[in-house]
């Protein structure tokens, strides 16, 4: 019976890991869903968020610094996204392979820039005191189960971001335009929608969310020039598994990946869990190549 | 930190140097200089650690040159970039020895880089000075192993923990050869001491998720964690331990890959109170260490951290000089014979000498991190420890080949 706290803890950890993945992957899913752009520099937007959190904490030390860092990182990364979109991606929109290569180049440039500015060994971003504790179940069946406040906080942020994004897409005029462009770009343009402006704002929104994600990832991980690389691979995995470009699919896929690896790790170590996860995803894609949620879009038919 | 841009011209210069020496006969060095190779990763993921080792090696070379050189010749370092890639280490080692006309090479960090270079040095009958602690189980006549053998770092840490009364040990490591071998040795010794291994977990290099590992730690309730995690994973590990309510004050962690430089990078408050085992700490007493630290900081910045592998790189150059002078020759075979016959050298890390198996006789220290990223030395081995590449419990009967 002593296994119950471990199993319950792993279910919680599965949700926690899923919340990290969904935050890391949402921006990628957004830009791919609408523009078919595979942004290889997405990981560096996460990194940028981490460094912006570091800078914000220098200006606003104390317990509320991390809350201040979130809008700063969102806006900062969105601004970098805007520059990236207007200078590069817009010009390569008809050539997806070139976009892939170009954004990969941008990724290398941003990594080296971070290295030159902040040094190769990373900077220190810490969770504030009010997050730096854990809730422990004192007695009963789940005695000893620990829930870290930081992980609860990140879960809340993930839900808030997904909720806000869902509302934005489902209930606002911007969301209507985005959905229209997503379903049929040519028809939307013919109906007078400024497709370029929609592209730009969705791309900025995607990189902005990545920046915000970078802040909360910094609470549990390092902030180094190459930190983006360690999250971008699972992010791609989640986007592919979820059904390219589907936000609902991205959320469900994050949960599948998070819970799968957390529960498998009760029995095996992390290295083997990763192998099993990849095997699982390959198997899944074999039987359901369209991913968890199939997206109907003229753009994908073309 | 040092600007990376600096190394481009250096690397380019080294490349040009090597290129020009290609056209010259390999054995002919100018009458008043002697070339040595310095081969560390100046780019890629290992650059963080290896650039500073290169700095320390160059510092030693400059000091020796300022003091008149060796056997009347100035040392001319040929710097090459191993680029964090074992295959490139092997390629650059070949280039240095075969075409570059260097008499010896200082370098390497990862075990993978050393294993890739080993056949090169064996084939070309040259000598590599390797500065980093490693997993043992290797003994080549063409490598001088100055970094700690397992019995000079890992086992002293266990001895300290046993003396402290810790009974239950949880082993966490990155998933590659050093942690696997180190933990194999630890497990055998923990069993032999009738103590308990509470768990053993591996995370891929660079892994950032420790939620499951920490859940297993919480379930196993060990007295202490022995960590052979390497690189950025350490940051994730300590952050997530703190988040789970297990800071070092509550559950001690003994690390084998965190030095002064890593502690500063991670944020000293994050790792404050955790332990590390090395053969050198920047905070060591002694005139030789004070002199080394101030010379390094004068050249590379007042706040520059100095670590165990850097000192090993620095001491290697001086040991090579002493061996060359004893042999009266730059010939690698004669230098090797002289190196193992040297008496104790008084160095920044205390008294050290090379044993017959070409590893360094040195002292083991345990330090505890303070809030500034420096270690308070809390334990040291009784005198120096003779290096043992083959742990008798894990590799019974295995011995170094007689050279």
Automatic annotation (TrEMBL), chain A:
Subcellular localization(s) per the UniProt record: Cell membrane
Topology within the bilayer: Multi-pass membrane protein
GO cellular component terms given for this protein: plasma membrane
GO molecular function: transmembrane transporter activity
Keywords from the UniProt entry: Amino-acid transport, Cell membrane, Membrane, Transmembrane, Transmembrane helix, Transport
Transmembrane region(s): 20-39, 51-84, 152-170, 200-220, 232-259, 266-287
GO biological process, one term: amino acid transport
Family matches, as Pfam families: BPD_transp_2 (PF02653)
Similarity annotation: Belongs to the binding-protein-dependent transport system permease family. LivHM subfamily.
Record-given protein name: Urea transport system permease protein
Automatic annotation (TrEMBL), chain B:
Keyword Signal part of the UniProt annotation: yes
Protein's UniProt keywords contain Signal: yes
Signal sequence residues: 1-30
Gene3D superfamilies per UniProt: 3.40.50.2300
CDD domains for the chain: PBP1_FmdD-like (cd06355)
Keyword terms, alphabetized: Signal
Protein's name in the database: Urea transport system substrate-binding protein
């Amino acid at each position: 019976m002593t296994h119950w706290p471990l199993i319950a803890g792993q279910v919680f950890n599965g949700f926690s890991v899923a919340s990290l993945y969904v935050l890391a992957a949402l921006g990628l899913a957004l830009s791919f869903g609408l523009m078919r752009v595979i942004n290889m520099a997405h990981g560096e937007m996460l990194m940028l968020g981490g460094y912006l959190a570091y800078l914000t904490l220098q200006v606003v030390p104390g317990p509320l610094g991390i809350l201040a860092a979130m809008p700063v990182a969102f806006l900062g990364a969105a601004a970098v996204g805007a520059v990236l979109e207007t200078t590069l991606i817009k010009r390569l929109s008809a050539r997806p392979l070139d976009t892939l290569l170009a954004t990969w180049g941008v990724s290398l440039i941003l990594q080296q820039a971070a290295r030159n500015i902040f040094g190769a060994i990373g900077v220190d971003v810490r969770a504030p005191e009010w997050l730096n504790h854990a809730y422990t179940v004192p007695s009963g069946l789940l005695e000893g189960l620990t829930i870290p406040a930081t992980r609860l906080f990140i879960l809340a942020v993930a839900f808030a971001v997904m909720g806000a994004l869902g509302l934005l897409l489902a209930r606002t005029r911007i969301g209507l335009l985005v959905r229209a462009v997503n379903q049929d770009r040519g028809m939307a343009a013919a109906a007078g929608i400024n497709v370029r402006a929609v592209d730009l704002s969705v791309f900025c929104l995607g990189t902005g969310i990545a920046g915000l994600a970078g802040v909360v990832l910094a609470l549990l991980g390092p902030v180094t020039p190459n930190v983006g690389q360690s999250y971008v691979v699972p992010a791609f995995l989640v986007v592919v598994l979820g059904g390219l470009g589907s936000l609902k699919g991205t959320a469900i896929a994050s949960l599948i990946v998070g819970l799968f690896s957390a529960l498998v790790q009760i029995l095996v170590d992390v290295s083997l869990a990763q192998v099993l996860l990849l095997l699982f995803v390959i198997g899944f894609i074999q039987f359901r190549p369209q991913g968890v949620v199939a997206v109907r879009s003229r753009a994908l038919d073309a | 930190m040092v600007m990376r841009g600096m190394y481009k011209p250096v690397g380019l210069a080294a490349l040009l140097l090597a290129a020009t020496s290609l056209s010259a006969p390999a054995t002919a060095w100018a009458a008043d200089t002697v070339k040595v190779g310095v081969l560390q990763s100046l780019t890629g993921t290992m650059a963080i650690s290896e650039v500073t080792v290169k700095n320390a090696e160059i510092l030693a070379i400059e000091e020796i040159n300022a003091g008149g050189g060796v056997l009347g010749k100035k040392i001319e370092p040929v710097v090459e970039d191993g680029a964090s890639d074992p295959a490139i280490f092997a390629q650059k080692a070949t280039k240095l020895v075969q075409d570059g006309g260097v008499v010896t090479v200082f370098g390497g960090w990862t075990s993978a880089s050393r294993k890739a270079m080993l056949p090169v040095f064996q084939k070309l009958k040259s000598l590599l000075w390797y500065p980093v602690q490693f997993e043992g189980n290797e003994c080549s006549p063409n490598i001088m192993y100055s970094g700690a053998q397992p019995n000079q770092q890992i086992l002293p840490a266990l001895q300290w923990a046993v003396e402290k009364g810790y009974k239950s040990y949880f082993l966490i490591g990155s998933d590659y050869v050093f942690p696997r071998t180190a933990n194999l040795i630890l497990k055998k010794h923990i069993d032999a001491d009738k103590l308990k291994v509470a768990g053993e977990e591996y995370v891929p290099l660079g892994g950032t998720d420790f939620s499951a590992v920490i859940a297993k730690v919480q379930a196993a309730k060990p007295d202490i964690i022995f960590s052979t995690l390497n690189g950025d994973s350490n940051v994730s590990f300590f952050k997530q331990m703190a988040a789970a309510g297990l800071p070092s004050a509550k559950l001690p962690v003994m690390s084998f890959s965190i030095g002064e430089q890593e502690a500063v990078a991670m944020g000293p408050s994050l790792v404050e109170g955790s332990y590390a085992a090395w053969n050198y700490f920047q905070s060591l007493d002694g005139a030789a260490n004070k002199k080394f630290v101030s010379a390094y900081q004068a050249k590379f910045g007042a706040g520059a951290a100095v670590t165990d592998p850097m000192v090993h790189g620095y001491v290697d150059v001086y040991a090579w000089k002493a061996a060359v002078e004893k042999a009266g020759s730059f010939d690698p075979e004669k230098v090797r014979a002289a190196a193992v016959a040297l008496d104790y050298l008084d160095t920044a890390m205390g008294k050290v000498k090379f044993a017959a198996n070409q590893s360094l006789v040195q002292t083991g220290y345990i330090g505890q991190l303070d809030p500034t990223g420096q270690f308070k030395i809390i334990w040291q081995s009784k005198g120096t420890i003779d290096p043992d590449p083959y742990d008798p419990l894990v590799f019974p009967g295995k011995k170094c080949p007689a050279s």
